[in-house]
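To: structure desk
From: M.T.
Subject: fold request, one chain
Message: Could you run this one when you get a chance? Sequence is below, nothing fancy, just the single chain.
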Amino acid sequence: MHETHAAAEAVILHSQMLWLIPFFPLAGFLIAVCAERLSGLVKITSPLAVLAALAVAVSSVATLFGAPEGARLSQTVYTWMAAGSFHADIAFRMDALSAVMALVVTAVGFLIHVYSVGYMGHDESCPRFFAYLNLFMFAMLLLVLGDNLLVLFVGWEGVGLCSYLLIGFWYESDDNAAAGKKAFIVNRIGDMGFVLGLLLLAWSLAPAAGGALSLDFAHIQAHAASLDSGTATVIALLLLIGATGKSAQIPLYTWLPDAMAGPTPVSALIHAATMVTAGIYMIARLNVVFALSPAAMQVVAVLGAMTALFAATIALVQTDIKKVLAYSTVSQLGFMVLALGVGAFATAVFHVMTHAFFKALLFLAAGSVIHGMSGEQDVQKMGGLRTKMPVTFWTFLIGTLAIAGAPGFAGFFSKDEILYHAWAGGHPWLWLTATITATLTAFYMFRLLFLTFFGELRADHDVAHHVHESPPVMTIPLVILALLSIVGGWVGLPEHWLWGNRFGHLLAPVTGYPHLAEGGMLGEGALMLIATTLAIAGALLAYVFYLRLPGLPMVLSWRLKGAYELLLNKYWIDELYDAVIVAPYVRLSTFLWKVADQELIDGFVNGLAGAVGANGNLWRHAQTGNVQHYALAFLGGVVAVLAYYVMR
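Reply: Done. Structure tokens follow.
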């Protein structure tokens, strides 16, 4: 393996348009807030705002592609902070990495907005929903286009806030409100590590920069080599903690499955184009820091592989259609983190892109099913929908083939490139773990497909009577995403196939790109054949279990009851967290509230106030306002003083 590191950026083109990309969704948010009672207007302006952002992004990318390799667009809006040696601007950049992310966020986000017009059109809180959705887009675009870590951090916290607002959108339900709070709190834990990592990074780079404190990406790239391995390891691990929160890795993944409490378009936006990709993007952007620490890279790779396998096993037995997709997201994010850990940063971003296409498709198709099934989400009460909802079925099938790694579909190229880099990078156990995970992915996704669209419909009579295909405003985005799920991976072919890996070479100036060793094509081809064969085996096994012998899963769940319940209850991780962390924390808080606060602090303050009041009441009786009383008291005092001296 020969590693090509990121080349220094030679050309900087000044742009006057980059600020418009996040500005348009922000304008959509403000319109939705101001026109709260005009839901018809909001349903038009919100998607148009994202479409405008997409148009500016496409124009900017066209300019970037016309520039020399390694160039970037740059725009400084104004100086944000300047204090001593520290300086930070509100500034935007568009290089190959942020160009890919901006296109994915705006394109997929626009389709989700259009879909939402049909899905949420009858909700009385529709303007509030679109306001949050636009604000989410603004925050994510700020994150991927920021020219320094401070602007990125504003976007980072913004997506966290918006996820809280959207997950708990139907806040009248206590469960929904609790899911929103859970996402918010778990991400704060990760954010603490992220902030510490940022501060340590700025402080550690200052000596090499002549004492200058800066978090500009150009500054970090120029001086990162001055970090010693130990410092780089600490910084990378702190940043990794932040990534585990946003990108739902062990141990901070638990908020993502519960995020299904929000409307389905929100699930699609969080899982495909915004929130969960933030951690992957951050590590890819700071690849020069992570690459300095082999130990941290090893931790990243192992964490990703463990998360991928762990989540895939849970997805095997879940019966909520959205929960299965949620755990598949956690698993696919694990693939991306694994790619980052083995140094294949461009490949991780490649999987971010293909995953955005097929995961948005799968979630929106699941939303179409739920819409057609009058809100039903349990796949055990579905079946036979392929004839009643043909567009939804065919698009869901394409999404399933893409995530399962069927040859020619988007996920096939990106997933197999990750597997190959794990193997070729000298990590056979990580490759084996990822290959097993890919097999499980094919099994549980085809299980979901068969239970939902094949066999007899198992819904109640009233629900079955109203099953229908979704309107065009919902199915057209499905068709477009299905097309992207087919062709989206062809920009990153194996190195010796046709035009090769254009995607990897595009990102090479920013992320580096590992080239194949001699004979690498044969090795990659053989590994690809193994992974494909196992994926087909997984799909066939699902066919046997759920179509040919539908009673077999029940028999196995009874014979393997312990293992089945372990997976069904998600390894009881939530219960473990409740017992070990949440319950003791609540008990401690209750103790501090009732004993330390109410009895000790409040008791002391209230007691002191009572004593002062009693003293005041006592002396108040002496202040009668009667001059004769005062004269009598004065006379008594004089008599007492004279008596004292006489008697002494």
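Reply (cont.): The beta strands are 2-4, 12-14, 72-83, 86-94, 513-515. Let me know if you need anything else for the meeting.
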